[in-house]
Amino acid sequence: MKISKEEVEKLAHLARLEFSEEEKLSMQADMDKILGFVDKINELDLEGVEPLVYLNEDRNIMRADKVEQNISKEDALRNSPAKDSDYFRVPKVLKRED
Fold it and tell me: 33-78 pLDDT, tens per residue?
């Protein structure tokens, strides 16, 4: 299957792209190559071949989602440069406009 210059122009319009005449010819050649690769795949007998969902057989092993106290509040506040009883003190980020 060959792609025409008009199809390249239509795709460029839909994608809101602008190409010079030289770039259109280059895009046409590239798209022809892509369609050629797809045609090669279509030549293969893929009967009984499962679709590839993952590149490898590894699965993400999830840990149980449970609440744990890893560091105490006092330990966390001990290393803070500025604190106020139970909270970290940070510089004001938002300015109030009246």
Answer: 999 999 998 888 888 888 888 778 777 788 888 888 788 888 888 8
Give helix 5-14 / helix 21-43 axis angle, nearest 10°: 100
CA distance 87 to 76: 10
- The pTM for the full model equals 0.48
d(CA 37, CA 50): 20
Asked whether 8 and 31 are in contact (CB, 8 A), the reply is yes
CATH architecture, domain 5-43: Orthogonal Bundle (1.10)
CA distances from 92 to 79, 80, 89, 95 (A): 20, 16, 9, 8
DSSP state of 84: E
